[in-house]
Fold this sequence. Notes:
Elements: H1 4-9, E1 14-15, E2 27-28, H2 30-53, H3 57-68, H4 76-79, H5 82-101, H6 107-130, E3 135-138, E4 141-144, H7 147-152, H8 154-175
Amino acid sequence: xxTPTSLLVDRPTTSLAPAIGFVPALPISRLEKxxxxxxxxxxxxxxxxxxxxxxxxxxxxxxxxxxTNSPLFAWLYDVxxxxxxxxxxxxxxxxxxxxxxxxxxxxxxxxxxxxxxxxMFLTTLSFLLTTPGLFKLVDGLWVPGGAGGFxxxxxxxxxxxxxxxxxxxxxxxxxx
Length: 176
C-alpha cells in the first residue's frame, strides 16, 4: 500500500539513463523531477530577468563599478560605452537563459547554456574579490553589504548551473 510520502519519493516515473554495461537505470521520483524543474526554470527566470534588466539605464550604471574594478573587464569601458557594455552583458544573459530553458527539446544546447552560466557566475563571484567596499565589518564580523549581498546569491546560482549542466549533459549523452 502506498502512503502519501511514497507517492512523492519512492515511485519511479522515469530513469536517468538506460542500463549500459554495468550502469543500472536509476529511478527518479516525482519529488526529484519537481526539484529538477523548479531549479532549472528558476535559474532561467533569474538569469533572464537580470539579463533584461541590463538594458535599463539604472542597471547599466549599477554594474559599472563591478566591471571597472575588475582586472579582466575594466578595459571594456575604454572600448564601449556604458550602455553598450550593459547591453552586451544583458544579451549574453538572455541568450544563456534561453539555452538553459531548451532542455526538454535540445539537451546539448541546454548543457552549453549551463556551461555559459557557470562561467558567468564565476565571473560575477570574482567581483567579490576585486570590488572595494562589498564587505563591511559589523560587530566584529565581516559581512557582505550593498552589492556584496547581491553578488553572494550567485554562489547558489552557480550550484544550480553546475547541476543543470550535469543533468543536461547526461540527457544529451543518452539521447544520442
